């Protein structure tokens, strides 16, 4: 093993003190929705609205423009997931989601992106070493149309709390050489 080698422990996400109200996070991943995504999610959640999986019926829907509409539950889950890497990777709890707005239809084949604005931070009154981060998140499609938005708050550990750290196992065979 080199004497000048640095071991970088696994780290992903931010801690409470990393957030500054007014900062915007353009989340790095986009995701194209396939027909299989839409169909599986709809069937797994027992949603029987055929506009999500029956192309023949969807052609008659005046809102869908004749295309299969993506299940709004999937759209919400996807935008939430896209935001996790920046906003709640280290969260220990979601505290609330308010003012969910579905503002533009999402179709099979659309690619969605997410961005979040940190709207506030405050230390937790009940959990020392933790803080509450509030945000507004919105989803955009490939054309820049807002497809949904919400306000959300999460409970995040502070860096000194030790939470979400030190979980990587020590190799019994010793360090990589």
TrEMBL record:
A molecular-function term among this protein's GO annotations: lyase activity
Top-level taxon in the UniProt lineage: Bacteria
InterPro entries: HotDog_dom_sf (IPR029069), MC_hydratase (IPR048274), MCH/BMMD (IPR052342)
Pfam families tied to this protein: MC_hydratase (PF19315)
Alphabetized CDD domains for the sequence: FkbR2
Protein name in UniProt: Dehydratase
